[in-house]
Amino acid sequence: MHVLPYLVAAYVFLAGCYGLATSRNLIHAVGCLAVCQSATYILLLAVGYRDGGTAPVFSDIAPGSRPVVDPLVQALTLTDIVVGATVTALLLALTVQISKRHGTVDPDELRELRG
Hints:
Blueprint: H1 4-22, H2 26-48, H3 71-102
Helix pairs in contact: 1-2, 2-3
């Protein structure tokens, strides 16, 4: 098992978390959250990868004669992409509404939203 994809996923996740923690702009924070989400794509695809694996179509070969990839992991990755795009769109729509109502996208200047 190669460790490089897991290290890349961890690096991308930590880079997104660092950007999220140091962000002074809500749009930048949403972008950094999307970067954190993309680390899960790398992680899921690394879990489902098999060296020399092919598509799990057994019409021309006998089952078990060669390694196949897990289609469930690929389906989960596609679902993760759709959910990530939806969450990003929702957060950007909320950011636009905050900008319209309060005139700023700086989280420090949004004092009246604090509890």
